[in-house]
TrEMBL record:
Domain of life from the UniProt record: Eukaryota
Domain DUF1618: 259-391
Name recorded for this polypeptide: DUF1618 domain-containing protein
InterPro entries named among the record's database cross-references: DUF1618 (IPR011676)
PANTHER family in the cross-refs: EXPRESSED PROTEIN, EXPRESSED PROTEIN-RELATED
Amino acid sequence: MEEAENGVRKLPPSPTTENGVRNRSPTRDPGNGRRKLSPSPTRSSAPEQRKPSASPPPPRVPKWLILDRIVHRSSRRHCGVVKDDATASALAQDCAGRPVRASLRIADPPAVSRLYLHLTGRPAISYREPTAIAAHRNSILFRLTAPFEDPMWWHDRFSFPIDYFVYSCRSSSPPSLTLLPPCFDGGHINPQLDKLCTPYRRQRQRTMLPEDMGILCHGDQGSSMEWKVKKVQIPPDMKISTYSWMTDAVFPIGTCLCWVDNYQGMLAIDVLTDSNSNPDHQQWLRYIPLPKNALKSQRLYKDAGEPDPLRSVCVTNTGIIKLVCILTECPPFTLKAWTLDDIHEGRWTMDLSNTMGAEEFFCLLGTGHSCLPQVQPSFPLVSLVDPDVICFLLKDKDRGLFWMIDVNIKYKKLLSSALYISEQEEEDGYPPKRGRRNNFFGHCFIRSKFSSYLSENAITSRDLSEKMQKTKEGRVTQKS
């Protein structure tokens, strides 16, 4: 997705080479997603000469990351995941003036990367854990709770002020950490709690649910950091149930944000439309229904906030929008995928080469990968750089493990696998020395291009990720 220009009022045109959804990648090698190289030339018959040993190549920069929503509150003394970590941000402050710094443990997909927060000067009490919410290009949006200083109010932890930060990186300068201003418009006002919040801000942040939030980076560098609350209209002929709508994902495409219900469709709106000239101008949501065959299934997990493990709608960095479904109507399951051919007409095409049955899927997990559990996959996630590569989460109930795998579903090939590293394993070793702060049962991960904006020398935490992975794999092998 390219940088949006000011004044753009239309949805991205359908098909273009940057943001259109018809963009198709060239023929790829099924193993790495790149063009196949031509055969090597015939070797010369001249005597072979010994060449001086070359210096080792620079570390490979991951093209994209799978970011966990669970954030790690680090106790490391140095300001980063590792010493001299180039992902460590400049020092920022929360709404109470306490220092905050962020860094990132980077891992190659399908291994999961994790955001680290380095916090000091906070009361030694439990409160809602920080959460990664969304990512776009070189930025990550996360939520952080700011506890009250007054112990009299520590019992009411859900009333603690909430801060939203944007963690951004550039290859030419150290990463930055920006505290977003609070948004009061439309929020519930409680004078008693607002008085308590006076040392932090004038009143409480309005309630915003993370599952309904997204981030879209654009080129307005000189704009003031003020919230604008705009009313949007729902078309009267929009054939969806707003009562049963559940937001499963929010992602940007072009100048728009799209809210996705995995069982109804997408709602899109151009969030960069300039309506300052006409304050009464109201924007209309644009409804894009799912393909008819995908509308026949019912949501199995209907509790509010419960992540859906069977479906996902994702957009690649070239603007290809893809729906992946794990259909269970005909046991055990079938994997199917659709591509949105025209965002304006809402026309989907089933990817016949991206269909796979359970038996074929289990065959991929067999030979050479005996550690992988033969179970139904969950939480499908389309690669940010290759629409034919899909990542899945596998849950090994017997051993209490989770695996991440990536599959080239077009060529029916398992590319790689990785164990999920839980938050309490980050720096305390095994078994963890402290109690569990976060429970992981599986959730929708966040795709990010953050690492591609860093210089090669900045990927210093990648070695740590590989070491943690090998250590955990060794423990699993010993127990098998």
